[in-house]
Amino acid sequence: MSLNTDMPVRVAAVTQVTDLVKRFRFERLDGHPMPFFSGGAHVVVSMNDNGLLRRNPYSLMSNPDDNSAYEISVLRVPNSRGGSIFMHEQVRPGDQLTVSQPVNLFAPDHRGRKHILIAGGIGITPFIAMMEQFSRDNIAFELHYAIRSRSHGAYWQQLLDRYGPRRIKIYVDEEKTFIPVAEIADNQPLGTHLYVCGPAGMIDGVLMTGLKAGWPKENLHSERFLAPPAGLPFQVFLERSNIHMTVGEHQSILEAAEAHGCDAPYMCRGGACGQCETEVLSCDGTLQHNDIYLSDEEKASGKKVMICVSRFKGQQLVLQL
Amino acid sequence: MLVQGIKSRPEYKGLDIDPHAKRHLFVLEGEGAQALIDEVGAKGRDFLAKSEILYLAAGAAPKAYDVTLSALSPDVFWQASTLQPLLFRLRACLEQARMGTRLSIAGTEGFIGQIMQVAIEYGIDYHSIHTEHRGSMARRVQCVHCKGITDNVTTSPFPCSHCGLPLLVRDHYSRRLGAFQGVNIDAEEPGTAPEPEEMFP
Ligand code: FES
Q1: Predicted-complex ipTM score
Q2: Is the pLDDT of residue A2 over 60?
Q3: How far apart are CA B18 and CA B26, in angstroms?
Q4: Domain B23-133 -> CATH class
Q5: Interfacial residues of A (vs B; Cβ cutoff 8 Å)
Q6: pTM of this prediction?
């Protein structure tokens, strides 16, 4: 949230995990302990990229019991908007960054009797913290983790060593082994919950397979952060702040508002949490809703917009912000 | 007299067969039998072959719903004489059940609440349970003072069957207890409780 509770941190360590994944360890500048978090939580990291403010959400992957520091892992995404490239190329030990308070939009359901975690690629990160918690609390879980190749996959060996092959199953694209989702969903005790984090296609496939196996939607959980999509620039007027602004090609409305000094609320910056919901006062054109939060009816009504990912095409959009 | 407009008041949205379910467990009481019979009328008989029915006739015994239910020839039809053996059997079913089994409950509110209480212990999310209220509107109410639970409450206020205080029934519902909350109505001036009003026939 944009309550002013962000924490200035120092980068305590940077570790190259694989070719494309780096791990960052953050300690508070004021020497205080980090707030405790729960497995599945993320923070938003603010970066100052040559005067350009970048804010990206990353899942916390350190041990939730360890409040001396936070750790995140970042996949280098070449054609991305630049946050991951900045983290990979610019950030060194000793540098200063700002991280938000932890927010959990992907918490395990503690009423569950067993937990199945399904990860694809960098989607492993929230589960690393979750598994620490499950194992501490003696809660039954198993991880099914798909990686491209053994050299590209992050943390699979450490996880196998720590939790053993009964709880950790690794599937490797290059070796033509794939997660048998239907079989997994087919034979689980009542009260099992399933969590999936990874590429969008994988998430959709797993959720669909679960529903087709007769699982109630309440037992199927996923986390996806959409990166704000690029698009043509457009004009927005923020009524309460009295700001006329242009939202650039690679900018979200939220980012443009922040660049103009308007402190809008947010949590996930990925169209999932609902925190940035903003009222549309007038709209001379069409809203392009890119979030997964609003219902289809709400999107059709045109009265609200999630400003972290959605765009606009037309003359002028007026928002109550 | 009743305190309404409290969010925890449960909603019973009606039975609804999940076409993907691998198995159905129907736990029915009294007039709740008719909810399933109606559902078969609406959706056809296909799901019966993978259905288990646990039935408690209770006050509806003269209507012989058990005959109608077993004539539907579900995979398993089992009838209990009282609630306790039904709960015992329910636990055994849930212990064995796999994901893909969907639970449906129909009957009076007190019955639905007590079945849900057990289901929740087995990690079932209450949103995923299909429920239908049939039969009497009588409520199961816990006295917030002595903690005793009174079944089949039809009036408000009513005298607590444990401590005797006149209790006002509130829409405030506890899923953990499977009961509404009853609060002493004349605490300031004992003896001034209004006459009981028939609220839940
Ligand atoms: S900040 Fe979460 S939906 Fe926009």
Answers
A1: 0.87
A2: no
A3: 13
A4: alpha beta
A5: 109, 111-113, 185-193, 211-219
A6: 0.90
